[in-house]
Write a structure and sequence with these properties.
The protein is an alpha+beta fold. 38% of the residues lie in helices and 15% in strands. A hairpin with a 2-residue loop joins β3 and β4. α2 packs across α5 and α3 crosses α4. The longest helix has 23 residues. The radius of gyration is 16 Å and the shape is globular.
């Protein structure tokens, strides 16, 4: 067992884990952050997506030994002072979920997309979200939520700038 210091959702934590342990298993078993889901275990479905330094990563493939010092954000860490992030709010507004299993991964991937492309085209949305699978098939609502989140973020920036 090795000791790692992980920055998870803005707080530093000391973790004892095998170097080969996945970030997914550490988040779920040691921190009880169960919003990050185990899906396929092969990085193909996106249910386990987290942000590592703002980039969407599949936590089922990410070894805990590779992330000390990185800022890790899970779905539980997106809200700020009790307020949902624009992406979370947009997913609610557009009802972009059914069973909810894929939702956390979708939201985190969409968050990373909007950091890279604040006003994504339809093609950018499709390409960026391609690795996230929704078994319920509500992709049109997910795309609509991403577009709404882009608008909410723009409005939030404008509101903040006018203060």
């Amino acid at each position: 067992m090795d000791e790692f210091v992980l920055n998870i959702n803005g707080a530093e934590h000391r973790v004892l884990a095998s170097r080969n342990k996945t970030l997914l298993s550490v988040l779920r078993s040691q921190f009880h952050l169960t919003g990050t889901k185990y899906g396929c275990g092969e990085g193909q479905c996106g249910a386990c997506t987290v942000l590592v330094d703002g980039t969407a990563k599949r936590s089922c493939l990410t070894r805990v030994a590779s992330v000390p010092g990185a800022r890790i954000t899970t779905i539980e860490g997106l809200e700020n002072n009790g307020k949902l992030s624009p992406v979370q709010q947009a997913f609610l507004d557009e009802e972009a979920f059914q069973c909810g299993y894929c939702t956390a991964g979708m939201i985190l991937s969409a968050t990373a997309l909007l950091r890279e492309h604040p006003h994504p085209t339809d093609q950018q949305i499709v390409e960026y979200m391609d690795g996230n699978i929704c078994r319920c098939g509500i992709y049109p609502r997910i795309a609509a939520a991403i577009k709404r989140a882009s608008q909410l973020q723009q409005k939030g920036r404008a509101d903040h700038a006018s203060r």
